[in-house]
Amino acid sequence: MEDDLHSARFKKNFAVGLSTMTVSFFITLGLLQHFELSYLYPFQGLSVVIISLLAAAILREKLTPRLFYGAASISAGVVLVSLS
Amino acid sequence: MIQKTKKLLLNPWFQLVLSVLFVTTSEVFLKRGAVEAPRLPAEVNWTGVSGLATLDVWCGILFVIASFISWLYVLRFIPLTIAFPLSNFVHVLVPLASWFFLNEHISVQRWCGIALVLLGVLIVARPVARMEEKL
Fold it and tell me: Does ipTM top 0.90?
């Protein structure tokens, strides 16, 4: 465990994760200046879809039919919200 | 009394509820701060970085940290395959809080969209949670 936490790979991944989270925080803050919270928040559902797709592409996770149905429902929901 | 409070705080299910409430509270604070924040020139405006000048945004950040701490505690005891789907209750709570605290009007169409998002997240949640558990 000690070795894992000090490995260059762990440090790099941790730094990348932390910086992307920071960037995403400030983008959200910027968007909140222009849009209602109840309008913006549903878009976060898309992150679940993107996480699954990236996991399939990068971590070689299997894509299941569930993902397809879920993604379709989330996307339809986001479209409805964006039209409202 | 102190014993009871301590026991409650050590209950992972109570911490899960706290975590969801903290997330909702943080979003309301962030929204309030973002609106109060001075508008910067258009080139840097998209970052919302001026929000850091408001107390509301800092309160929001505190609640983000609090929700993170609760969530980490939850994950020590409750499997992610169960905790993650339950945590998506925020998709209902945040719009409700927007309506109640921020006076946002939420149309029937928007509620339908929110319901579809929630349904979709619940369908996808289990596989996503399982693979995060592996990481």
Answer: no
